[in-house]
Amino acid sequence: MLYMNSDILRRLQKLNQLKLTDSEERDVLAFFEKQSAELESLSSAIDTENVERMVHVMPILTVVREDVVVKNFTREELQAGAPETMDGYWQVPRLVE
Amino acid sequence: MKLYLDENKNAAARKVVLNDMMLTTELSTTAGSKMLEGYKSLFEAEAVTRLKAAGFEIAGKSNVGELSLGLLGETSYFGAVTDDKGNLALAANEIVKTTDAVGAVGLDANGSFLRGAALSDQVAIKPTYGTVSRFGTVSVACSGETVCVSAKSVADAQSLLCAIAGHDDKDGTSLSDSECQRLCADAPRESIKKIAVAKSLALSADEATRAKIHAVVDALKAKGIEVEPIDDSVLIAAKTAWNALMCAELCNNVSKYDGVKYGYRTKNYTNIDELYTNSRTEAFGELLKTAILFGSEALSTENYMPVYDKSLRVRRVICERFAEIFKDYGAVLMPVCSKTAYTEKDVADNKYISFDEASYIAPAYISGLPAVVVGGVLLVGAAFSENALLELAKIAEEG
Question: Which of A20, B97, B201, B292 has its CB surrounded by the most CB atoms within 10 Å?
Answer without folding.
Answer: B292
